[in-house]
Here is the input.
Amino acid sequence: MKTRFTALKGAPDVLPPETNLWGRIENAACEVFAAYGYDEIKTSIIEPAELFLRSIGASSDIVAKEMYSFTDKGGRSVSLRPEGTASVVRAYVEHNLSLRPAPQKFFYRGPMFRYERPQKGRQRQFYQIGAECFGTAHPGMDAELIVMLMAFLERAGLPALSLELNSIGCRNCRPAFKQRLREFFAPHLDGLCPDCQRRHEQNPLRILDCKVERCIAIRAGAPLISESLCAECREHFGALLGLLDAMKTPYTLNPHMVRGLDYYTRTVFEVTSGQLGAQNAVAAGGRYDLLVSEFGGPETPALGFAAGMERLSRLLSAAESLSMPRPEVFIASLGREAAAAALSTASALRARDKRVEVGWEGSLKSQLRRADKMGARYVVIIGEDELRSGSFKWKNLGTGESGETGAEEIFNLLS
Ligand code: HAM
Here is the structure.
C-alpha cells in the first residue's frame, strides 16, 4: 500500500514564493548586520540538554514543557535547540572567543524547536534570525543593538512596529525584588494557576509573565521592578533611554515585561505588531551579563535578540501580494534537433543572469500556453525551420510585438 506523508503538526513547509520573501528578509538582515560589525556564526541544531536547562532555566516553560529532548545512541541526553543564545554563548566560551578584541558580535539564522501548542504564528519548528554581542556593559551597546534591530526591520519593509522596554535588574537588586514579589503573592497563592504556584518559590518574576486570566487579575497590584532597581541598574537604564531619545527611536516602557527566559539581566525588550493577533512579538531580546561566566567563561557582559521569521514573513505578505517570479524568456523547443540549440541559447542567457525556461516537450500550442501561465516576458521559438534558417521567431507576450532574430541577437532583445 502506498503512503502519503504529511509534515508534522507545527512544522510546516515553506514554499515559493514565500521562500523568496524569506531570502529578501535574510538579505536585509545580512546587509544591516554587516554594517554594525556582526558576522555569521553557525552552531549545531542539537546540543546537550543541560545547556538549555542551565541557561533558559528549569522553571521556564521552554525547559519545563517544550523541549525536544531524547537520549541518543551513546546514552547522552540531547535536545533540539529551542533558541540560539545558549549555543552562541557555549561556542564563545568553547572557542575562547573572549581572546579576540571586544566587542565580539555574531548573528545566526536557522530553525528552532519548541513543543508548543501550534496556533497562528506559533509553531513547533520555527526559524529565527538573531544577533549576540559580547564584551561591553555600556548602555551604548544596548542602544546600538536596538537601533540595528529597528534598522533591519525597516530595511526588510516593516517600519511601523512598537518597541517595548524594561529593566529587570541585576544580581544585586533582583533577589530583594523577588522576595517582595513572594510576599505580595503569598496571600493569593490559592488563586494562582498551578504553574504560578510552582513559580512562586522557584522564580516569582515569571508570575508577572503568566497569560492565565486569574493570575493577570491578581498581579494587577504587584510591586514593579522599576521601583526596586539598584542605583547602577537605574543609571544604566536611564542612559539607554537617553540614547534612544537622541536617536529618535520611539519606545514604550513596559514595567511588567520580564521575558520567559531566565538568563536576562537589566535591559529586556520586545518588538510587537498590532497585526499578528495573540502571537504579536516579532523580535525580542535583552542583556544576559552573567551567562558567559556561568558557562565557565570569563565575566563578560553580553546582549542580543532574535526575530521570528514566520511572523516577519506573515506581516510582509499581508502588506504585498506575493507572486512567483516570472521567466524573462520561455524557449519553446520543437523536435529532438532543437533541444541542443534551446539548451545552449538558454545557458547563454542564464549566464547573463536572465531567468529562462525551456519548453522541452509538447506541441507549440501547449508550450505557448505554459509560457503564458508562467507569465514569461518573451517567447522564443526554436524548431527545425528555425535551426535551418538560423533565425528564431520571438514574441513579447506583454505587448504582442513579435519578430525574428539570429541566435546572437536574442541578447539585444532583452537588454
Ligand atoms: P524568544 O522571545 O523566545 O527569545 O523568541 C524570539 C522570537 O522568536 C519571538 O519574538 C518570536 O518572533 C519568535 N518565536 C519564538 N517562539 C516561536 C514559535 N513557537 N513560533 C514562531 N515564532 C516564535 C529568544 O529566543 C531569545 N534567544 C532572544 C535573545 C537573543 N535574547 C538574547 N539574545
Notes: The chain has two domains: 18-173+229-319, 329-414. The first strand starts at residue 39 and ends at 40. The pocket of histidyl-adenosine monophosphate is lined by residues 83-85, 114, 116, 121-123, 126, 128, 130, 132, 261, 281-286, 304-308, 310-311 (CB under 6 Å). The mean pLDDT is 95.
